[in-house]
Design goal:
With 92 residues, the protein is mainly α. It folds into two domains: 1-54, no CATH class; 57-92. The protein is built from five helices and no strands. The protein is elongated, with a radius of gyration of 23 Å.
């Protein structure tokens, strides 16, 4: 397995790293299917998979949060800019 992964990627991978990457990839690309990683990894409890393997959900949640904050800030700037423009037009 190590040799095949090295040939495919050009980087040394151990099997544990390969498993973790697969579980994290599934969680990042299809979060609604992240629980299937427990079966693939043969964990008896999904919490084990969540705790040690699935890191994509945290990153995805953070990206969604960042995007929402940026949208809120941009809307506020547009409103302030529009209000300043309206005041200038009214001769304030």
């Amino acid at each position: 397995m190590k040799t095949a992964l090295l040939k495919l990627t050009g980087k040394p991978f151990n099997f544990h790293c390969f498993r973790a990457s697969g579980a994290t990839f599934v969680a990042a690309v299809a979060p609604e299917r992240a629980r299937m990683a427990s079966g693939v990894l043969h964990h008896s409890r999904p919490s084990t998979t969540d705790k040690y393997y699935i890191k994509g959900r945290k990153h995805q949640s953070f990206r969604i949060y960042q995007s929402a904050v940026k949208d809120i800030i941009a809307r506020g700037r547009r409103r302030r800019s529009r209000a300043a423009h309206d005041k200038a037009q009214a001769g304030w």
